[in-house]
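User: I'm writing a short report section on ligand binding and want a predicted complex to refer to. Could you take this sequence and nicotinamide-adenine-dinucleotide and write out the structure as tokens? A short remark afterwards would be nice.
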Amino acid sequence: MGEANRNLIVVTGAGGFIGGSYVAALRARGCTAIRAVDCKPFDEWYQHFDEVENLSLDLNLKENCEVAARGAHDIYNLAANMGGMGFIEHNKALCMLSVLINTHMLQAALKHGAKRFFYSSSACVYNADKQKTFVAPSLKEEDAYPAMAEDGYGWEKLFSERMCRHFREDYGLLTRVARFHNVYGPWGTWYGGREKAPAAICRKVIEAKLKGTREIAIWGSGKQTRSFMYIDDCVKGIDLIMNSDILEPINLGSSEAVSINQLVDMAEEIAGIKLQRKYDLSAPKGVDGRNSDNTMIQRLLHWEPNTPLRVGLDKTYHWIHDQYLARERGDSRVVRESLTTSH
Ligand code: NAD
Ligand code: GDC
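Assistant: Sure. The structure tokens for the complex follow:
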């Protein structure tokens, strides 16, 4: 059993949205022993910090997970092949292959004596039959069973949740699992096909305003409902859950449900324009309605994600606006969506 460096924190998926934001938060609070790992080449990392140990490794491979986990005390496994509905509906096998990352990271964590392991699950584990109304059903943790998860991506997450539990029960590895509900904010994917609704809608409103097209394409009828969690709440929730005694998977999401039409209203209001809406009923829609029931996180942590969508969306819109103009200028510092499907 390798000896864990008392402080070393490993973050996988660190070249992406939440992983990069989590490394930034660790640095901001003075953590120095950080190992950031992602399979993307460094120039495609959304956020990259020179003073952190950065490794570009494909964690589908067992031997690479061993390198990533060596000497770690805490491991935050945020790496996965993921995206919005437009990606996960068309890449189900790729999304399920993320099981290799979590399984190999758990084995490596155990082999190298890591003490704590965080896994980023998703609201896509929830039973689809409970999400068939536009009146956003507040999903409780027990609504994942009987299981009927989102095809591909949702099943991988549900399986990996259970793997975490069994590694805790059978081998004593401290595992913590949070089910994220649609996280948005600066430094997230905003174009290229993996973007989720908040970033996509902001980009489309910005494009319509800058190009004067005055119309916006919306997937589905716009009546679909979701809750969207601002990235800062996600980072805070990861910390609270990792440092808690919560053994079972727990919701980490906002309880402020909105329809996609209301999301577009907000983006238009921020932009100061009104657009003609074109609904594409054949586009990927996912479930009809979804919201996070935060009874458990409130009871156990006396807190819940609470950044109002209007506040978080304003910051996100302006960040994407700057990225958009930078891209138009051909500025290399734009967050680039890596178009390689093996991510
Ligand atoms: P992201 O796509 O921005 O980041 C994921 C990162 O993982 C990418 O940088 C990618 O290169 C990396 N990765 C993928 N396969 C890899 C591999 N084989 N080896 C090494 N790195 C690999 O996604 P995100 O939004 O930051 O999501 C982080 C985690 O949270 C993921 O597990 C995701 O499933 C989960 N999650 C996110 C949301 C959300 O709304 N963003 C919701 C639910 C769950
Ligand atoms: O992609 P997403 O944010 O994922 O879509 C939310 C709703 O917004 C869908 O009904 C979609 O049809 C609608 N929508 C309308 N226009 C657009 O231009 C657009 N782009 C996108 N992307 N959507 C649009 C997500 C998963 C994540 C993660 C989270 C967990 O499902 O994709 O991987 O697991 O759930 O909460 P969503 O919320 O369906």
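A remark for your report: Residues 82, 84-86, 88, 122-124, 153, 180-182, 195-197, 200, 218-220, 224, 226, 260, 283-286 surround GDC (ligand 2) (CB under 6 Å). Residues 309-328 form the longest helix (20 residues).
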